Structure formats: C-alpha cells, structure tokens
Amino acid sequence: MFETVKEYLHHNWLLAISTPIYTVLILLEVLLSNYQHKKYYTFKETLMNFWLNIANALLGLSIKVGVLAMLAWFYTFHINSIEEPILYWTLLFIGLDCCFYFEHRSEHYSRILWAVHVTHHSSQEFNLTTGFRSSVLRPFVSCWFFIPLVLLGFKPLDILLMDAICQIYGIIVHTRYIKKMPVWFETFL
After folding, report:
1. CA distance 120 to 113
2. pTM of the model
C-alpha cells in the first residue's frame, strides 16, 4: 500500500507538495485559535469542508477531462506562441489571476454563477479549511474564463496546472490571521 501511495504522489507532485503545507498551516491555525480562545474551528464545519474537498477532487477529475477537450479545441484557433519559458509561465500566472478575478467578480454579480459559487460562502466559520469548500461545478464555470488564455497561445494542460497552483494560494488566504496583504500585493494579485 505504501508503494501505491508513493507512486500516486510521484505522478501528482502538486498534491504531494501542497498537502503537507496545508496540514501544517491548518494545525497551526487550530492550535493558535484554541490557545487564544477563539472559535475559528468547529468539528462539524471542518469535517464538511474536508468532505467537500474530497468530493470536488473526485468529481472534478472527470469534469476536467471534458474541460481539457473543450480548451484543446479552442487552442486550435490560438493566435500567438510564446517560446521563452520564463515569460510564458509568468504571463500565464498573471493571465490566470486576471481570469480568476473576473470569474470571481462575475460569480458575485450573476445569479446563476452565484448559485455555483455560494457553496464557498456557506460555511459558518472562516478558516483555512473554508478554502476547500468549492462547488463541483467550478470547472464548468472557470473554463469559459480560460478561453482568452487558450486563444493567446497558452496550452490547455498548462492552464489547468497553473489553476491548481493558484488554488493553493487561494486556500492559504482563507484565514482571519492575515487581515490585509501589503498594498502592492493586493494591487497586483
């Protein structure tokens, strides 16, 4: 069994890197909030957040196959290619963050998109595990916001990888311990 887990994590390196980071940060937040007698965590809410994360991961895998196929079709119409790897990944990171910004704003202004996004805001608590709380339909919504990136020449698989990387950051900001990021950071991201 250990060998199977090792093999799985070898092929899913992002999960292998992010899971220990989440574990340490969540444990620190739990310990600190308990030490300070703040009720940032309840067993029921935390269990629900983890359950939604597992359900999203399992269902999201099958959805992402269809999303990948759709993005691959749009990629056949791309108008540009960026050959320099550092520029490519930097622009993809910035572009994806912009796409996510417009997606998130749209989810708060459109009733149908809000219906998909509201799961994320349904927790009674605001802590790191709240970042796990997301709708299984998110990939269906996100993919439409990724189309401009594909048309600009970013590869569909790279977009989904960068989205997964950005989701790590998205989970980490769900804490009451960080009140506000520096102005330059919030202006840029």
Report:
1. 12
2. 0.72
